Structure formats: structure tokens, C-alpha cells
Amino acid sequence: MDSQKNIVVLGAGESGVGAAILAQSKGFPVFVSDKGQITSNYCKILKEYNIPFEEGKHSEELILNASEVIKSPGIPDTAPLIKKLNDLNIPVISEIEFAGRYSNAKMICITGSNGKTTTTLLLYHMLKKAGIHVGLAGNVGHSLARQVAENDFSHFVVELSSFQLDGMKQFKADIAILMNITPDHLDRYDYKMKNYIDSKFRIIQNQTENDAFIFCQDDEIITKELEQISVQVQKHPFSIYECLPKGASLKNDELIIKNENINLNMKQNELSLKGKHNTYNSMAAGIAGSILGIRNEVIRESLSDFKGVEHRLEKLSNVNGVDFINDSKATNINSTWYALESMDDETVWIVGGVDKGNDYNELMDLVKEKVKAIVCLGIDNSKIHQAFDGVIETIVDTNSMQDAVKTAFEIANGEATVLLSPACASFDLFKSYEDRGQQFKEEVLKL
């Protein structure tokens, strides 16, 4: 090992701080630079580890002298500093790529435009129940790099966003799961869908015939892409429409999982997670568990007693006959499509935020069928009005969660369900989708 290799970490969030800790543990000189302000929690951690850092700026004389740069997934490749590093042929990698160099653990990696967090947490729940020494990492849980530095897990369940996949070169998933691909983050991919598809398919790069690829057979984008590329990996598809000889299927309201290790049947109504999208999530997790050799009883128990994910179709209280559902994690059209599709009652829909190139026409049929009124929650609601003015009689603009919840409650009038499913990013009015969901909960409690 070249201990003189000089590593710079760009970004001091969970990913960056974890990468810095791992770099230091391997004997590398490391420096952390964040253009924004570092939160007090991460400042404290960096100081505890005696890792030098800066905030509020990028000192190029230090950064451009690096042997290798580990960048936060939030920093785009088009950023001027990244372009300078590329021009100087200084390698720029992701925290996931760096962590993978120092772990022999089995990596089960999950991506997709929607459903990846639920599937990741469900699979983690399953592995823990099976007694496997497993870590939860990536886009959920703690950074993979820090856990590699501080723990000796035999397995990791890793949720990967397209941004994290973009910085991976040699990293390999032992089991790769691709839930679906729908338009998302296109502003990051030159508004070219093919670029986004290529990013998602990086999850199977470097896989061999000894590895597994679990994917949704019902997703046309995935199946078309697989027809055009050559892969050596073992394929495990899942479908709610086709009976498959291998993978997971749905037949007569029964979930069927088949592969070399297992033949498992389970009634769909025994699944703890309801709705079509959650059947997909359960299928993917069940297949992964079977590949890992987890016993049928444990897979079945895990799929039936998992509690779900906060901010994802999370049922809150009933206030004077009005149910409130927190789906703040729905930051794109496809997530909101699934939310609306799962609604049984007339719905007052709270929508809006930072638009990522949304085409609201994809929701039109569901909105006509299920939505009583729309409450817009954002600084710029013009695209929502363009789509639904004249379609939905009542459309109200609000610019705070307090106003949105009060307005929706009044419109519901004891007869409808209020659904927060924004279909947009949160950064115009909130710190994150978690902050948005938490404020929703707090305002509902005040009613």
C-alpha cells in the first residue's frame, strides 16, 4: 500500500465523513473540503478523528494536489472543480467505490427509481432475522465506508442511488437488484433518458456468472435494455403478470418464489406491505433471501412482519373522519402514481416542490378517478396548474406545511383522505423529504 497517496474528500455529509474515516484507518493522509457549512455533528466526528477539514470553500491548491478524490454523490460531474480534476487526470471516485476496496463482505445492492429504500430495509430485516451479521449502508443507514472501517460484517445490504452508481468503477455487487426505471433526476443526465438508464445498469457492471441479478420483468425499460446488452450474470426476474420458471411470480393471489435453492408459496394477503408496488418489493427481497440460502420460514416471517418505511405511504392518525397519509418520500411522478393507485377513498392530494422534469399527464387518469381536490405546496406551482386546471375543480396554492394541512383538512370535510405525495423534491421549502414529512406529521397532530 502506498501510504503517501494523498486523498481529498469533497463533501462532509454521511458519505464524505465515512470515506475520510476509512482513508485514515488505512494510513492515508486525508483532507475533507465542503463548499457549504458542515453540520455540528459531522464537525465533531472529524475533530474526534483528528481529520483536517475546511468548510465554506474549496481550496484548489490543496484539492488539485490530490492523488485521488472521493466526492459526495450530490456533487455533479459537471461541477467546475470536478472538470479541473478530470483535466489533470486525478481519479475521482465515489465513497462506495472506495469502501469496496477494503471489504470482503458479500454485497447485496439495490437500486431503482422507486421502491429501493423499502426493499433495502425489508431485506436487511430478513437477514437480521436469519442471524446473519449484516450492515445497512449506502443511501440509507450509515455510510458503507465508515462501517467497513469500524465493523466486520459478513454481509452488507446497500441502497444505491444513480448518483452513487455514477462514481463506481471496480466495485461489484454479489447480488444486484434493479426495481424499476422511470424518468427521474433527468436534470442531472442532460435530460437524456438513455444516460439515466445507463447509470442504473451500472449496478451489474463487473458481475460474473457466479453473481445474481434480480430485476422486474414487468418494467419495459429494463427488459428492452437487457435485450440489447450481453450479461453473464445469473438472472432472477420477478413479475405480477407472468408465471416465470425462475424468480418470483403471482398466481391466484399467491406469491411464488423459485430457484435452485427454494420453492416458496405465500398468500399475497399475508404480506405486511400492501399495494402492487409493495408486492414487487416483497418479491425482490424474497428472491435475494432465497439466493442467500435463508430458510423458507424466515423469508415468510420477514415478509409478513416487516413494519414499513417512514415517509412512504405512512398512515398517520384519523382526525374527525379524515385519514392522513404521509408519502413525503414520493419525489417523482412514478412514486406518486403508486400512491394514488393504492388509494381506496376520495383523496385530497397535497403536491408540489422542486419539479424534476415531471410529466403530470402520466397521473391524469388516476387523478380524475381518485382526487377530490389538489393542494399545491411549493414556491412555483405553475406546472401543476397547467396540468390540472379545468380537470379538478378545487386547486389551492399554499406555501407552508401549516397552510397545506389546514386547507386539505377543511376540504376533506370528514369524508376524504388527505395524501401528501409531492412528486417533487423538497428543497424549495424544506431541508429534505424527511423534514417535509416530519412537518406534515407535526401539523396533523395540531389539528
From TrEMBL:
Q: Which InterPro entries match?
A: Mur-like_cat_sf, Mur_ligase_C, Mur_ligase_C_dom_sf, Mur_ligase_cen, MurD
The pathway this protein participates in, as annotated, is: Cell wall biogenesis; peptidoglycan biosynthesis
Compartments in which it is found: Cytoplasm
Q: Which reaction does it catalyse?
A: UDP-N-acetyl-alpha-D-muramoyl-L-alanine + D-glutamate + ATP = UDP-N-acetyl-alpha-D-muramoyl-L-alanyl-D-glutamate + ADP + phosphate + H(+)
> What keywords does the record list, in alphabetical order?
ATP-binding, Cell cycle, Cell division, Cell shape, Cell wall biogenesis/degradation, Cytoplasm, Ligase, Nucleotide-binding, Peptidoglycan synthesis
Question: One GO biological process from the UniProt record?
Answer: regulation of cell shape
SUPFAM superfamilies recorded: MurCD N-terminal domain, MurD-like peptide ligases, catalytic domain, MurD-like peptide ligases, peptide-binding domain
**Where is the Mur ligase C-terminal domain positioned along the sequence?**
311-424
Q: What class of enzyme is it?
A: ligase
Residue span(s) of domain Mur ligase central: 110-288
Which domain of life, per UniProt?
Answer: Bacteria
Query: Record-annotated residues binding ATP?
Result: 112-118
EC numbers on record: 6.3.2.9
The primary location reported for this protein is: cytoplasm
Q: Name one Pfam family in it.
A: MurD-like_N
Give any Gene Ontology cellular component. cytoplasm
* Similarity-based family: Belongs to the MurCDEF family.
- HAMAP family reported for this sequence: MurD
Q: What is this protein called?
A: UDP-N-acetylmuramoylalanine--D-glutamate ligase
Specify the species.
Ancylomarina salipaludis
**Encoding gene per record:** murD
